[in-house]
Specification:
By secondary structure, the chain is an alpha/beta fold. It has 15 helices and 14 strands. α10 links the parallel β13 and β14 (325-328). α9 (292-300) crosses α10. It starts with a helix and ends with a helix.
């Protein structure tokens, strides 16, 4: 074993990468699972805004429960109330307490009021905004080290390294796809389109232009097929139209050639933006927000073109209705994810702020996501990575000497010297 490890150590440039060698060795050997004692696998969740981090964590928890029913999977979180808001049964979840806020805090500020039984594996889901620091984490769980503690990124995370770099593109372990069984809700009769994006100024000046670009495109595309057409929008979009004459004028100029009557349903009221003779468009500002299951149903049964933003929304759409043509509002801090989506799907519109929300030249473009979704499925790529970690933990006594050497060294040269000495 040490001979194999010496060869691997020599091939690494950075000392920090040595902690990954045992499970990487298991990954290359492609070993089958062996019987072992029951392990305690902890998911450590410190979300940072919104519910996307919660859903990712819950999905990963469900993956592990289905993959490894023989082991104890324990979800530890600073925000159990956010799981409850999504209708998730949190019985058995462990509350992490914080000397500070519930979200976005550092691990050295965290503690358990009652220490849980020792974990064999800890996986931090997700790591956002800063690079993982094992010394900070040890202030929270003192027996943690980089041989039993692992990390997961957000989609195409930008502060590596991560054990589980999720997302798309080279080296990424795919999307958190699920088998969605969605019933059709009677919230709205079709035909309708769905938009779900983030507002300005939080996301820059792009939001209003994004919405208007999408509306112009779908109005032109569907006006002949659907003389009566509805579009689900968020309430803030209606507010922006009402409060800004310039935004309203741009919206009317984009849509009015195709729909001569534009109505709005909002706050239990109905009012008219444009009254004329011809097609009718209704902006439905009275539908959202909705619980996740109802929102997924609205996505599934909308027309082909859909405008979304956020990791979780686009993943839910891929999972529930992969026949859509997804138009994607790029977050300023998520351009790497958008660029890789554009390359991997492929869809040249997504990596350009001018066309990512809609493009009149691409109205008739058909996008086939089948190959893309088969290639970037975490249930395949991520399980292989998790299997290799478990295989390492099952056989960690074989690596005991190597782990002790790495934990008590500071350079690759020192590790190599000590490993070679063990072979004498």
């Amino acid at each position: 074993m040490n001979k194999d490890l010496i060869s691997l150590v020599k091939s690494n440039k950075y000392y920090e990468d040595l902690y990954e060698l045992p499970w990487k060795l298991m990954e290359t050997k492609n070993n089958k699972q062996t019987k072992s004692k029951k392990l305690r696998i902890a998911i450590i969740n410190v979300p940072c805004g919104g519910f996307g981090d919660i859903i990712v964590c819950q999905t990963f928890y469900e993956y592990l429960k289905s993959w490894y029913p023989q082991h104890d999977i324990i979800l530890c979180t600073t925000t159990p109330y956010k799981f409850k808001k999504l209708g998730i049964n949190t019985k058995g979840y462990v509350k992490i307490h914080v000397h500070g806020e519930d979200e976005c805090e550092l691990y050295n500020l965290m503690y358990f009021k009652k220490q849980p039984k020792k974990f064999d594996i800890m996986i931090c889901v997700p790591i956002i905004n800063y690079q993982f620091n094992i010394n900070q984490f040890k202030k929270f769980i003192p027996y943690a080290n980089l041989f039993n503690t692992f990390t997961m990124s957000e989609y195409n995370g930008y502060i590596p390294p991560y054990t589980f770099p999720i997302g798309v593109g080279e080296g990424q372990l795919g999307l958190f796809l699920t088998n969605q069984k969605i019933k059709k809700d009677n919230l709205l009769k079709g035909p309708y389109a769905l938009t779900y994006i983030q507002p300005s100024p939080e996301w820059g000046v792009h939001s209003n232009l994004c919405f208007i670009t999408f509306m112009e495109m779908i109005s032109k595309k569907y006006s002949k097929q659907y003389p009566l057409f509805q579009v689900i929008v968020q309430p803030w979009i209606i507010d922006n139209l009402n409060e800004s004459p310039s935004i309203m004028n741009r919206f009317k100029k984009a849509v009015n050639p195709y729909y001569q009557n534009i109505l709005v349903y909002y706050n239990d009221k109905e009012f008219t933006l444009i009254e004329g003779t011809g097609n009718i468009l209704i902006l439905r500002g009275d539908i959202l927000p909705k619980p996740r299951s109802e929102f997924i149903s609205l996505m599934k049964y909308s027309v082909e073109d859909i405008l979304l933003t956020g990791d979780q929304s686009i993943t839910d759409c891929f999972s529930s209705s992969s026949n859509k043509h997804i138009w994607y509002q790029i977050a300023p801090w998520k351009t790497d994810f958008a660029d890789n989506l554009a390359k991997c799907i492929p869809d040249k519109n997504i990596d350009n702020f001018k066309t990512t929300c809609g493009n009149l030249k691409s109205i008739r473009t058909n996008i086939n996501y089948s190959s893309f979704l088969q290639t970037y499925d975490f249930r395949i790529l991520g399980k292989k990575r998790m299997d290799s970690i478990l295989q390492f933990i099952y056989n960690k006594e074989d690596f005991r000497e190597f782990m002790d050497i790495v934990l008590h060294s500071r350079t690759i040269e020192s590790v190599l010297k000590k490993l070679k000495y063990t072979l004498k």
